[in-house]
Design brief:
alpha+beta, seven-stranded mixed beta sheet
């Protein structure tokens, strides 16, 4: 039996025995005796990312998940697969996954969930290039009203684990999710005002446990200070993904508590191994290794991130790799070794500490995920690399400009905090560095043929343990041998909430956060 107790060998991938978990009685605890609850909950979040072209069809689903829509499966707190709209999944031999849908689900407009709706959703994800599971326009075949067969275009036995990603949130047949997403989740869509808010309401016809709160609004605050002020002023009941520099001041506020999630993301330095000229310096392996050697990650965790992080060697949370996580060593901080590496590569140091080679100055362009990576982190990396003679030009960009630069390969280093958004141990590997990825930035960050072969082996492994092992070996190639990605820190998500909020359980993955259990005492 592989880890997580989920059989995978040419049989059930998601155990049918746990498919009825939502049908049990409501075991949710209330507050103290005599406590009543408010009807509405307001949460302050970072900037509105629904406006990006890639996300226009995913309003309420990704990257902010408002619990409107549901994918065939869901991601558990342990970063494993659980049933959702799909009651079970089984491999039918070869590369085909059969998904059997629940029979007691209705959309918010009252129509029943059918295999047709799931197929339309999958086909749309292929057409709009939001899917990442190697699906094609002929991958999905309807067997009957509650059964579909899905055959990826390349061998991919991780599909059931991937179908927990909210990008596969199922919408009602014939509807346009860019205008009004009609789905099956515990909340239904009310309105979306770009750069202002998105509001949802409880769906009383929900097939599982009903949401505790009647109305839920997410307000967008691109500026961290403005978000914190809104909490202080009582305009919102809580804020999540708090800037670490604000934690101490928020902890001092009366009526506010700070909660953290288990690690679900790694702050990661993506390297343009095949950047478009003049962003081509990091194609040099020695320079990549010098950059990795030149950053003290323990100092970053303790002083910059305030201890709300951990030192990791992997590009996703180590728990996803199971017992094979130690196969990834990471490149330990050694400033002297970084200088020697640069010297050996011909990058000569000048009196002011800068370096050049054959008339070209050693200066790297650093971009970062908008609204997610703190300025203090960027300045720390800049200062660390300056000590070994690598100049870094920090460019903080608006979301659209960042997306454009990333997808055109016009950067040397990109710092992001990608979440483990599904249960696939090769999730980020196949998404960001794999030759067969459909992500537009992938061609500028490839890690080589050996890496590709190991990712392919992970995707093709019938047993989860074997998939974890191949993913760990691929990560060893990516991080330890190629230095094509540099893990900086395992990140704890931080939330500041009113002490009147009850029932909230922080999820390690940002896109899988649920607010169904949360409620607010009057």
């Amino acid at each position: 039996m592989p880890s997580h107790g989920v059989p995978t060998l040419s049989g059930i991938v998601v155990s049918a025995s746990i498919a009825v978990f939502a049908c049990s009685g409501d075991r949710r605890a209330g507050g103290t005796a005599g406590e009543t609850q408010k009807d509405a909950l307001v949460i302050g979040v970072a900037g509105d990312e629904y406006g990006l072209q890639l996300n226009r069809s995913r309003v309420g689903m990704y990257p902010l998940n408002a619990s409107i829509c549901e994918a065939p499966f869901r991601l558990s707190q342990a970063l494993a697969t659980e049933p959702s709209l799909g009651a079970k999944a089984e491999h039918r031999g070869g590369n085909t996954l059969r998904v059997t849908l629940r029979g007691d689900v209705t959309f918010h407009d009252g129509t029943p969930l059918t295999a047709i709706a799931v197929k339309e959703t999958m086909d749309r994800s292929v057409r709009l290039r939001t899917q990442y599971s190697f699906l094609s326009d002929s991958s999905v075949r309807i067997v009957d009203d509650t059964t579909i067969d899905i055959t990826p275009s390349v061998l991919n036995l991780r599909l059931a684990e991937q179908l927990a990603h909210p990008t596969y949130g199922v919408t009602a047949t014939g509807t346009d999710p860019t205008i009004r997403p009609i789905c099956t989740g515990p909340f239904q869509f009310v309105e979306y005002v770009p750069k202002s808010h998105i509001t949802v309401e409880r769906y009383d016809g929900y097939w599982g446990q009903k949401a505790r709160i009647k109305r839920l609004t997410f307000r967008f605050y691109p500026d961290d200070n403005t978000r914190a002020l809104a909490l202080r002023a009582g305009e919102v009941d809580g804020i999540y993904d708090v800037n670490r520099g604000m934690v101490r001041s928020l902890q001092k506020l009366p009526g506010i508590r700070v909660v953290t999630s288990p690690p679900g993301a790694v702050m990661l330095m993506h390297v343009a191994t095949r950047g478009a000229a003049p962003y081509d310096l990091m194609s040099e392996p020695a320079l990549r290794r010098a950059v990795a050697l030149g950053i003290d990650r323990r100092l970053l965790v303790d002083r910059v991130l305030g201890g709300y992080a951990s030192v990791v060697s992997t590009v996703n949370p180590p728990v996803v790799l199971g017992r094979h996580a130690p196969l990834v060593n990471g490149i330990a901080y050694d400033a002297d070794a970084a200088r020697r590496t640069l010297d050996s590569a011909g990058w000569k140091a000048a009196a002011d500490g800068s370096r050049s080679r054959r008339g070209r100055r050693l200066e790297l362009s650093l971009i970062s995920q908008t609204g997610v990576v703190d300025r203090a982190v960027l300045e720390f990396v800049q200062a660390q690399l300056a000590q070994v003679g690598i100049r870094v030009r920090v460019e903080q960009l608006e979301a659209g400009a960042f997306e454009s630069r990333l997808n055109s390969g016009r950067f040397d280093i990109d710092i992001e905090v990608p979440n483990q958004n599904d249960a696939n141990p090769a999730f980020l590997l196949a998404l960001r560095w794999y030759t067969k990825s459909n992500v537009r930035s992938a061609p500028f960050m490839l890690a080589g043929p050996r890496f590709d072969s190991l990712v392919a082996a992970s995707l093709a492994a019938p047993e989860r343990d074997a998939a974890q092992r191949f993913a760990a070996l691929a990560m060893h190639e990516l991080v330890d041998r190629q230095a094509a990605a540099i893990p900086l820190a395992g990140i704890f998500r931080i939330h500041a909430l009113s002490t009147r909020i009850r029932g909230f359980e922080p999820h390690p993955a940002r896109v899988s956060q649920s607010w169904s259990e949360a409620w607010v005492a009057k």
